[in-house]
From TrEMBL:
Family: Belongs to the anhydro-N-acetylmuramic acid kinase family.
PANTHER family for the chain: ANHYDRO-N-ACETYLMURAMIC ACID KINASE
Protein name listed in UniProt: Anhydro-N-acetylmuramic acid kinase
Pathway note: Amino-sugar metabolism; 1,6-anhydro-N-acetylmuramate degradation; Cell wall biogenesis; peptidoglycan recycling
Gene3D superfamilies assigned: 3.30.420.40
Gene (name only): anmK
Organism: Mucilaginibacter mallensis
Length: 396
């Protein structure tokens, strides 16, 4: 029998380790920076035990943000720029990982694997592109080979394609992490992540997997951020100061809420390809509200995010439920206050009480998906794709 090549042998050795040190990387739709979570795993599937050893978000500089924004969610993107960014982001993320490890005084050789989400630059489920003959599609760039070669660490990346190949929309993948780390017998739970886009996982206390639902809900921070950039030259509404200085415009709010996406059956996914500045302006035109103040606009968009979440939860889940929030939007007090008022019977906390740092949750998710890719088995959760995801990149 021929021997395994050294990469495959190393892969098998890592997969069989009782304890694995992993780095999860997430760069989300808000483009604020790279989330880096250093985790330790033992076990797999429902027996997974994890601890977060370190976490940081390394902010992107303005030049990098502009470069990515030039192609992000744009149908007319410059293909050469996409090609360059695919390699560049891989190398750049690798540098940021090495920087974080140096700051933490950790030798890269002690890390078993990196699990990298990459940067989504376009998300096109059929519900969005509507082009006959084409499947659901999504594109994350920042190639794993560059990360593996530059860091010397086995890298698992490009998780979303398998989900699509097996019939999904490529998102939300939070489902797989939330089921493993977030469910509790006897307690109906919602894990709500408010990033650029808001998504949730419903985990019933009876652990009936056919009732589990994981779906995007609509915009989280993306429209609020877009309006802050356009009218206040600010990246986001820090501590909701702008929202609190404005008032809700009811005509605009009901126009925003009337978009057909909110009537579509879940699970469903979306992104800034739909929810963007042009979407806001079109709704303002239709509701005759182009003249409202920028403060009222930010306030109305914040109310829009909160209302879509409360409406979805009220319409779909039982009243006896606990909600655990994560993502940058969990710091938007206007949105969180509105959720508490809109869901008076729901106990709302953040995921920290579950031992999951709310800022780190998505980076932890990818580390966990990497652990499953190495040593898990596909888990059947209702009608969701029963798959292990991720592609392997070797350092040498
Ligand atoms: N103090 C704060 N006040 C208000 N909003 C905040 C605050 N801190 C963070 N945010 C919001 O959180 C956003 C960043 O959230 P996060 O990092 O979870 O997004 P993401 O991971 O890029 O998104 P996604 O999950 O959609 O991919 C910021 O752009 C901002 O809108
Ligand atoms: C295509 C894509 O990048 N989608 C992201 C985005 O950000 C939030 C929401 O939209 C979610 O569907 C997804 O990310 C998380 C990590 C997920 O897949 O669960």
């Amino acid at each position: 029998m021929l021997p395994l090549n050294h990469n495959l042998q190393k892969l098998v050795d890592i997969a069989r380790k009782d304890k694995k040190i992993a780095i999860g990387l997430m760069s989300g739709t808000s483009l604020d920076g790279l989330d880096i979570a250093l985790c330790r795993f033992s076990g797999n599937g429902l027996q997974t035990k994890f601890s977060l050893l370190q976490f940081t978000t390394i902010p992107y500089d303005d030049t990098f943000k502009q470069e990515v924004k030039a192609v992000f969610a744009r149908r007319d993107a410059d293909l050469e720029k996409v090609c360059l960014l695919n390699a560049y982001i891989g190398t750049y993320h690798a540098e940021l990982v090495l920087q974080a490890l140096a700051d933490w005084n950790i030798n890269p050789k002690t890390v078993d694997f990196i699990a990298s989400h990459g940067q989504t630059i376009y998300h096109a489920p059929k519900r969005l592109h509507k082009q006959a003959g084409y499947p659901n599609a999504t594109l994350q760039i920042g190639d794993g080979d560059h990360i593996a070669v530059k860091t010397g660490i086995l890298t698992i990346s490009d998780f979303r394609q398998k989900h699509i190949a097996a019939g999904g929309e490529g998102a939300p993948l939070a489902l797989y992490g939330d089921v493993l780390l977030g469910s509790k017998a006897g307690e109906n739970r919602i894990l709500l992540n408010i990033g650029g886009i808001a998504n949730l996982t419903y985990l019933p206390g009876d652990k009936d997997y056919t009732k589990i639902l994981c779906t995007d809900i609509g915009p989280g921070n993306t429209l609020i951020d877009a309006a802050c950039r356009e009218y206040f030259n600010k990246p986001f509404d820090e501590d909701s100061r702008i929202a609190y200085s404005g008032k809700i415009n009811d005509a605009l709010l009901s126009e925003l809420l009337s978009h057909p996406f909110f009537k579509e059956i879940a699970p469903k996914t979306t992104g800034p390809e739909l929810f963007n500045l042009a979407f806001i302006k079109a709704a303002q035109e239709r509701s005759n509200t182009l003249g409202i103040s920028a403060e009222d606009l930010v306030c109305t968009l914040s109310a829009f995010t909160a209302t879509t979440i409360t409406d979805f939860i009220t319409a779909n889940f039982p009243a006896d439920i606990k909600l655990f929030a994560s993502g940058g939007g969990a710091r938007n007090i206007y949105v969180m206050d509105s959720l508490m008022r809109g869901l008076p019977d729901v106990e709302i906390q953040d995921t920290a009480v579950l031992g999951i740092d709310p800022d780190a949750k998505e980076a932890i998710l990818f580390a966990l998906l990497g652990n499953e890719a190495l040593c898990g088995e596909p888990i059947k959760i209702g009608d969701n794709p029963t798959v292990l995801m991720g592609k392997f990149s070797f350092a040498g």
